[in-house]
Write a structure and sequence with these properties.
Radius of gyration: 53 Å
Number of helices: 5
Helix content: 55-70%
Strand content: 5-15%
Distance between the termini: 153 Å
Structural class: alpha+beta
Order of helices and strands: HHEEEHHHE
CATH superfamily of the largest domain: Band 7 domain
CATH topology of the largest domain: Tetrahydropterin Synthase, Chain A
Number of domains: 2
Number of strands: 4
């Protein structure tokens, strides 16, 4: 009986030792896993930090650039619109719209007008007969007495009409089409009339105006 008790106690003791050994092994394994987990967590944290460190400066610079660009645009709109206030007589580029009108009005006050008889001339066209009818108005400086100079123009009108007829007959269709050609004709007629009327003195005809310029 005593031997059986001892065997049982020995078995219990062996089982207890086995359990303790298993527990020790388990504890050791857990202790080994802890540093690995810590290293994994540390490596993941380092990766996150490196990612942030790499891209954060670029993100910050981008935000700064965008903020400055927005501020510059806003300032440009504010100062651009306020730096040059417009008035009813001022255009966008700061010029006075009424200045030219005032100059022309002042120029007109110092002038009077003489209306010439219409002139008809065949154009220089080969295939068909085309002609132009032109009615001119002379703007004359007020330095000339209106009654006396009107009589002088009536006297010289045949010469002016003849020259104008010959000049218009020398033109083709391409010479009279468009705004630029009409202005060129006005300038040419102005120079010719002043030369014929005032060969040795100051020109007194200021502008040549078209009352009618019809091509048929």
């Amino acid at each position: 009986m005593a031997e059986e008790k001892e065997e049982k106690q020995q078995e219990k003791k062996d089982k207890k030792e086995k359990k303790e050994k298993k527990k020790e092994k388990k504890d050791k394994k857990e202790e080994k896993k802890k540093p690995e987990k810590q290293e994994e967590g540390k490596s993941k944290g380092d990766e996150k930090k490196s990612f942030i460190d790499r891209f954060m400066p670029g993100i910050i610079i981008g935000l700064v650039v965008v903020s400055f660009a927005g501020a510059g645009f806003t300032a440009g709109r504010i100062f651009g619109s306020s730096s040059m206030p417009q008035t009813p007589g001022t255009s966008e580029n700061g010029q006075d719209r009424n200045s030219k009108a005032k100059d022309s009005e002042g120029d007109t006050k110092n002038s009077w007008y003489y209306h010439m008889a219409p002139v008809i001339a065949n154009l220089n066209v080969s295939d068909v007969t085309r002609y132009v009818k032109a009615s001119l108005t002379l703007e004359v400086s007020d330095e000339m007495d209106e009654k006396k100079f009107t009589a002088f123009l009536e006297e010289k009108q045949p010469i002016l009409t003849n020259w104008l007829t010959v000049y218009l007959a020398s033109l083709g269709l391409d010479d009279i089409r468009g705004d630029n050609n009409l202005k060129r004709i006005q300038a040419h007629v102005l120079d010719a009339f002043n030369e014929k009327l005032f060969p040795d003195s100051k020109p007194q005809i200021k502008h040549i105006l078209f009352k009618e310029f019809a091509v048929q």
